[in-house]
Every structure is written in structure tokens, then in C-alpha cells.
């Protein structure tokens, strides 16, 4: 049992379907941490391939360069737990894509653009079966933001267009320590959801000051 050291803290996650929308820095970190704490069922959504610059901030290796991110991430999840059920969808997320909700779902949003985030969350909430929560992790190089919502109206309160996003150059957009924190915060939120503990619906963490707001 790979989660033997944490089984008294984290409940059995076998029946939860985890939807990882965006398999870059945030999504790959979250997915692997979920797998390590006992997550068993995954739906991975991303259209991109692994590139060299992904290695420094995501959970991919040099051997994954050129592979579709969903396939490379699926490979790593199965290395952690070969019995996991992992579906990899290498196509645009829309109303027809989000058709695999089981009624016991948690969605993790990790797309780079705010428009992709908006469109994917909208597709989720238009689906016949809704997830328990949508966890949206947003990161820069030195700041991590996190929201947990249950409706589209609630989600839109914390959403903003790409034009109002981080103006930093591409060489100051991400760090490995921020992406790893993102995965940890998302995994901890899932633990709270599954144990019915109070959830922080919105917060941010600033690395230079080590301030949590």
C-alpha cells in the first residue's frame, strides 16, 4: 500500500474521479501528489506536448520531451500505482469533452490562460453532473493563488481576463518551488474536502515575504 504512512490522515480516494484540466506545472504536480496519497481514477486534459522549458517547472523528465503531456503524465501516475485508472484526453476542453463526470468528482484547473480556465470551468458547470468542487491553482514565479468553488457564479467572482494578468516576461513566469507548492496546496484541499473539514475558498502565498493571505 503506497499510502500506508498517511492512511489515517487521508481517507480512501478509490471512488473519487480526479479531472486534471491542464497538465503543465500545476496539473502535473497536483496529479502526482494525488496519486501518491491514494487517488485511483484520473481524467487528464491537455493539448500540448512536453517541451524543454517544461522540465524546469513541471514534473516531466528529459525522456518526455516531444510526448503529449497527457500521455507523459499518465505514464508517471502508473509508475506510482500501476493499478490506477487513467484516461488521457489530448483535445480541447468543451461541453462535449466533460462527459465523464461520475457524481463523485473533483476538478483541478491548471491551464496557463485565463480564457482556457474560464471556458473549461464553464463546460464543467454546464455538464449534467457537477463536481464536488473546482480547485483553481494559479501561479507565477513567486506567487501562488488558489480558489475553491462550487458554482460558475462563485468562480467568476475571482476570475479576470488575461489582459489583467501578470505582466512579467516569460523568463520570470514560473519556478519549480511554486509549482510544487501548488500541488501540495491542492492535495491538502482534496484531503479537507474528503474529510468534511473547513476549506479556505481563496488565498494566496507570496514567496519573497512568506506571507499567506
Please tell me about this protein's structure.
- By secondary structure, the chain is α/β, with parallel strands linked by helices.
- Helix content is 29%, strand content 19%.
- The protein contains 5 helices and 8 strands.
- Helix 1 runs parallel beside helix 2 and helix 1 (25-36) packs across helix 5 (176-194).
- The radius of gyration is 16 Å and the shape is globular.
Using brief descriptors, characterize the structure shown.
213 residues; 8 strands; alpha/beta
Shape, per Cα inertia axes: globular
Instruction: Give the N-to-C terminal Cα separation.
Output: 36 Å
H and E string:
EHEHEEHEEHHEE
Oligomeric form of this entry? single chain
Helix fraction bin: 25-40%
Strand line-up of the largest beta sheet: 3-2-1-4-5-6-7-8
Beta-strand share of residues: 15-25%
User: What is the residue-mean pLDDT, rounded to a whole number?
Assistant: 92
The biggest beta sheet reads: 8 strands, mixed
Radius of gyration: 16 Å
The residue ranges in which pLDDT falls below 50 over 5 or more consecutive positions are none
Number of strands: 8
Number of DSSP helical runs: 5
Structural class: alpha/beta
What's the SSE blueprint?
Layout lengths: L16 E5 L3 H12 L4 E5 L23 H12 L4 E5 L15 E5 L4 H13 L6 E7 L3 E7 L2 H5 L19 H19 L7 E5 L4 E2 L1
Parallel strand pairs: 1-2, 1-4, 2-3, 4-5
Antiparallel strand pairs: 5-6, 6-7, 7-8
Helix pairs in contact: 1-2, 1-5
Quick recap:
By secondary structure, this protein is of the alpha/beta class. The protein is built from five helices and eight strands; from the N terminus they run E-H-E-H-E-E-H-E-E-H-H-E-E.
